[in-house]
DNA sequence: AATTTCATGTAATTCGTTACATGATTCC
DNA sequence: GGAATCATGTAACGAATTACATGAAATT
């Protein structure tokens, strides 16, 4: 059943929720718009799309040039394919979105989830943010402990590296605190449609001014 | 010839330079002491050690219990193996250390290198730090460009994520600036042994107070 | 006319993990 | 004597990359 890392699948579903796209465009958005994700290669993306289709979560539609393409009998015609989310796919994505298992606190899972926060309920967002925070706090605990145990045996550069690493984590914790804070304050007394409905329903807490998650590159648009 | 990611190989060589160790201990140091590295599993580490031995960079030595182990003729005896760097291995490591190809600016490669800065010459350190900095600046350029292109189409959370990501990178650039600064100031007029000699020869520029590189976990000492 | 960017795919390979299998030693 | 931790390995699998292969459309 190939439960891929899940992240690519998740992101593809999430992006296609906005609008149908073909693979090429999808890949670009994976690199750029979502700030976070590493650039998946075509070798990864296209096969993944095929399995999503096989699962009934997407359907393939003819890309541009819809007229003459079908007419020309030649089999060699390479088709442009636009992928569209099916209702089942939409449902599946919503399941994934609200399903906050322990994986959801890991770096990339968290970032992927966060990128689609606009489509979730505040309750879920809080769970994810708080889960992420405890995950990081655990990490800090271990780093501190290990540092305490080994400090004297390490040279200055190694020490410096560890310190910078810890500070990065501490910084993210502060960021999370602000986010949690503003989620809490955000729209607390707000009733109305609590469901994460179709297109941007304006649902969004008040966000602070800050940034992200230090994923490697996203760059290299040109998949050399 | 299996050029693994290179990082594990590099780190193993570097750690064994300090002292012979067996695989188990090596793995722990990979997780903790070097702050940065993800926890390599035994399934990765042991085979890697074997190929390093095959390359003549390490030799295996009987671990503890050297007396009775050899005496007992039983083949079933599982040996404890201590790995020691050979002169060829040492040479190879030094080659890797000073060989600053474009890979060296990537996240993990950079972190790995930095962790062994204590064993390099200032000249090399400068090259690596500056290379890393331009790498990050390129990245920032692309992020800024992409943000400018797509800003209005993105929701608040995605935007927030991108902002945090950019700030993380900017922060690392500032860190690098400080490091470069202090390398430059460090021991500029210093003559003497310029070679990165055997054990800690006290060679170290003046470092600022800061930290590192946001690698995921290192935790999970207990390889579940 | 040539180059870049759009567009889709496959095969081989690399890097790494998990789960399994085994056993010794140390601490309580 | 039982648990934790030390210690070493292998086989099956997973996720993703690279290099290859192909070709259409848009731009210069």
UniProtKB/TrEMBL annotation, chains A, B:
Residues 182-224 are annotated as: Disordered. Keywords: Coiled coil. The keyword NADP does not apply. Residues 12-95 form the Transcription regulator PadR N-terminal domain. Residues 182-200 have a biased composition (Basic and acidic residues). It holds the Pfam family PadR. The keyword Phosphoprotein does not apply. Residues 126-167 form a coiled coil. PANTHER family: CONSERVED PROTEIN, PADR-FAMILY TRANSCRIPTIONAL REGULATOR. This is Helix-turn-helix transcriptional regulator. It comes from Streptomyces roseolus.
